[in-house]
Specification:
single chain, about 150 residues, mainly alpha, elongated
Length: about 150
């Protein structure tokens, strides 16, 4: 009888080790999947050329930031810039050179955005014709709180 108990205990110990090994492997797999998910999420919100946040991120971040500013009656500013005549530059000097210019502009935006009060840079590349068709022009300014200018 004691021999059966000892044998049963050893079987349980072996089974327990196998389960612990499977659990450990599952944890590692979950960690890898979480890392992959974060990578895909970051890639979906980032422009691959400039590594700046893309339009999808910009739209969501703008909505969130405006809501926070309204809730806290905080002032809010939005700075937008455009690379003038970029299409003509691209046509004249080629897309490889144009890509380099965009990367340099992105580096400048990132450096400017390092201050505490500055948000991350965002790349939202729309051609002027697309903007006219889609009416991408800036929304009319509206005060965050009534009476604000």
């Amino acid at each position: 009888m004691i021999e059966r108990l000892i044998a049963g205990a050893k079987e349980m110990e072996t089974s327990n080790r196998k389960l612990e090994a499977r659990l450990s492997a599952s944890r590692e797999e979950i960690e890898q999947l979480q890392q992959n998910l974060e990578t895909v999420r970051t890639e979906s919100l980032t422009d691959p050329l400039t590594t700046l946040a893309n339009r999808k991120f910009f739209d969501a971040e703008l909505d969130r930031t405006v809501a926070e500013a309204k809730a806290g009656y905080e002032p809010l500013a939005l700075l937008m810039c455009d690379v003038d005549h970029f299409k003509a530059f691209n046509d004249r000097f080629g897309h490889l050179t144009g890509d380099q210019v965009l990367r340099l502009v992105a580096i400048s935006v990132k450096q400017i955005g390092r201050g505490e009060d500055m948000p991350r840079g965002t790349a939202a590349r729309n051609s002027p014709s697309r903007c006219r068709r889609r009416r991408c022009a800036p929304r009319s300014a509206s005060p965050i709180r009534s009476g604000a200018r």
